[in-house]
Amino acid sequence: MKEILIAVDYDLAAQKIAETGYSIGKALGAHITLLHVVVDAAHYYTTEYSPVMGFTGFSAQNFETEIEEIKETASGFLENVKEHLKDATIDLLVKEGNAAKMIRETAKEIKADMIIMASHGRKGLEKILVGSVSEEVLHHTSIPLLIIPTPLSLEKE
């Protein structure tokens, strides 16, 4: 294993995913790339969206400007994760689009030997409405995938 892609989002389990993925990568002597995928700006407008970085929604109507702000904040978020892991060699990527598709494409682009990401344990209607990014990546990649379970109940601890 020479290259590991760790995909993180703004949920409360991001620290656990980053630390676990980093530990595995370092034990294998691999280079680490952290990825955050920004979904469309409308996702950040919902009243239910409350990510770790403090967003509670946006009020302006210029989606283009806002998506750039969201990307800048995502870059800052990844910088904080990198500082937390205390490793200047970690590469950081922010991509925009469908999360599962961008994770798969980025893994191919950087020639990742493994993808590490979370599964949030969504069930029922929430899974139908939100979907499962980890499940979609699992079913559409040939790259080894480590899915770390982070049930929603544990994320709130």
Question: Can you summarize this structure?
Answer:
With 157 residues, this protein is an alpha/beta fold.
In what order do the strands lie side by side in the largest sheet?
3-2-1-4-5
Shape: globular
Query: Structural class, judged by helices and strands?
Result: alpha/beta
Strand content: 15-25%
Radius of gyration: 15 Å
> Could you spell the SSE succession in H and E letters?
EHEHEHEHHEH
Figure out the total of helices: 6
- Major sheet description: 5 strands, parallel
Secondary structure tally: strands: 5
Mean pLDDT: 79
The separation of the N and C termini measures: 33 Å
Flag low-confidence runs: 47-61, 125-130, 153-157
Helix coverage percent of residues?
Answer: 40-55%
Oligomeric assembly:
single chain
Can you tell me about this structure?
This protein is 42% helix and 19% strand. The protein is globular and about 40 Å long. Strands 3-2-1-4-5 form a 5-stranded parallel β-sheet, sandwiched between helices. With 157 residues, it is an alpha/beta fold. It contains 6 helices and 5 strands. Mean pLDDT is 79; it is low at 47-61, 125-130 and 153-157. Helix 3 (99-109) crosses helix 5. It has helices spanning 14-27, 63-85, 99-109, 124-130, 133-139, 152-155; strands at 3-7, 31-38, 91-96, 114-119, 145-149.
